[in-house]
Write a structure and sequence with these properties.
The chain has 207 residues and is of the alpha+beta class. It has three helices and ten strands; from the N terminus they run E-E-H-E-E-H-E-E-E-H-E-E-E. It has a five-stranded antiparallel β-sheet with strand order 8-5-6-10-9. Strands 1-2-7 form a three-stranded antiparallel β-sheet. Strands 3-4 form a two-stranded antiparallel sheet.
Length: 207
Amino acid sequence: MATSTQNAITLKGSAAIVAEYLNYGINSILFQRGIYPPEQFTSVQQYGLTILMSTDDKIIAFLQNVLGQAQEWLARNEIEKITMVITNVYTKEVLEQWDFKVQAEPPSADGTKVDPVNPTASKELKKIQAEIRDVLRQIAATISYLPLLECICTFDVLIHTVKNCDIPEKWNETDEVHIPNAQTVQLKSFSTGLQKVDTIVNYKLTD
């Protein structure tokens, strides 16, 4: 998982941790929000939790492609935000927007060695995973207050990179999505010692 040197987490290792969280988080949201039938998911154990993961080959391949590229950008601190968008299949209206905001942390935080080229953090992996577990628990609990999605929905993942970032040929640039008069809930954050991730859900109130 994380690349480590004498129990230190590197930027590449931090990127792997964040990408792994995104994979489990997005799958959990797909299950919790009923985007696909429950029989298309299987349970796995991770972070001390039971997480439902999609068994659909197309979804698995899509997330591997998107998060694989995201991990490369994360390893260079070139991502500002990753957004999971849930839309009505027929009207294309955006009903929910899950933002995963990524912030580079100062090199001196958490006992991190000051090396601008190859920064490392001394934060224990168990502590990072405990923080991620808390966020995933909150994601699972959102079903108690988010509006019921009564239409057939689909999802997409948008990656907001810094300017002058190299974009692969098969990737398209798109506008940022926005839900008018959205309700916003900030979930807990977690930190690798090099990167902090905030999880925020914006949703449309039902009429």
